[in-house]
Design brief:
single chain, alpha+beta, Ribosomal Protein S5, domain 2, globular
Amino acid sequence: MSCQGYPRRLRLLTAGDYRHVFDTATCKVHGKGLMALAAPSNLGHPRLGLIFSKKNVRRAVDRNRFKRIARESIRLRQHQLPPVDIVLLARRGLVELDNETVHRQLHGMWRRLDRELQKLENSR
């Protein structure tokens, strides 16, 4: 049985990690209310960073709820994703979505991200 936890190694922890993704992002995937930026990593596993600002998601309850959903989604898909650093940003309109819709949307975003990165790999 493989590990399905969400350990520290799966998180972007420092401002430098986030800056690296913003500066070197090779792939951008949009969803309703969400955007994911991805940059290649040589760590051998994906890492996730979350940016849910008060400007786009006013209530702390909602920000925390969406963060929990995003962490759960990456925890379940960590073994299918390529080794990339991902920053997930909240956009306006996210608050109107229910939990199941956000979870389905994230699942689709991870699949699109994987396809886009495979295309980039094959074109090199």
